[in-house]
Amino acid sequence: MQENFLCGTSEITGCRFSIYPMTDRFADVILSALKEVDTSKVWMETDDVSTCVRGRSIHVFDVVKAIYLEAVKHGDHVVFNGTFSNGCPGDSAGDAYLAENEERANEESAAGNSQEVAVQFALYPMGIPDYMNVIMDQVELAKKGTFTKGVHYASRLDGDAHAVFKTLEDAFENCKKSDSTHIVMTVNMSANSPSKKGTE
Known about the structure:
Helices cover 30% and strands 30% of the residues. It is of the alpha+beta class. A hairpin with a 2-residue loop joins strand 6 (147-151) and strand 7.
């Protein structure tokens, strides 16, 4: 029996991500970051491969940023690999969280964590023939902030994590305002990399 899935039927935004701390304390770093962040405004589930956060877009970005900043605050090299999505067919289990207000639960606590990061991200506005125009509009906006350069299959951002996450969130939200019915954004982020210090 074939199910008929349609994009654009839900306002839920989700992010499935994995964090990779380059330390033998990796389990403690990950579990501590997940524990310290206020996740009361999102649906969240963690398994042995990744963590999934779902709810209103504003709260998904708030939680994901806060978790990453917690993971990197001790100075370890930590890599984040995540996929953000909006309009995914079949989203339903997190509907209750859409009623949450717009106050970011972690904004105040995360504000004190300053961290330089390097990011490669890619946008995929699905279901529209002029998707490249939507992508390039966001690249042009990013050039006014944390955009560094284009790389194969992605765009690079560098700077403070708060500014970089704002660029990512703005790009994602602007894509949601387009005619695309399903937005996907992939993000690879690195902090405290030894290569930034000139070592191999």
